[in-house]
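Support request from a user on the community tier.

User writes: "When I paste my structure tokens into the form, the page sometimes reloads and wipes my input. The last time it worked, I copied everything first. Here is what I submitted, just in case something in the input itself triggers the reload:"
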């Protein structure tokens, strides 16, 4: 039995913190309203 299975509340808190971090990172990246793709996506094949 792993330590996460012994502490389900801690597991839930860590999961919530992970999702909040992902959402904050997306807001930091796209919060400026710049929804253009990076230039390396279109390399003119």
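"...and here is what came back when it finally went through:"
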């Amino acid at each position: 039995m792993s330590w996460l299975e012994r502490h389900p509340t801690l597991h839930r808190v860590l999961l919530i913190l992970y999702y909040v971090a992902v959402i904050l990172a997306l807001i930091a990246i796209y919060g400026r309203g710049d929804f253009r793709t990076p230039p390396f996506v279109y390399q003119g094949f």
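Agent notes: The reload is a front-end session timeout and is unrelated to the input. The mean pLDDT is 81. The radius of gyration is 18 Å. Escalated to web team.
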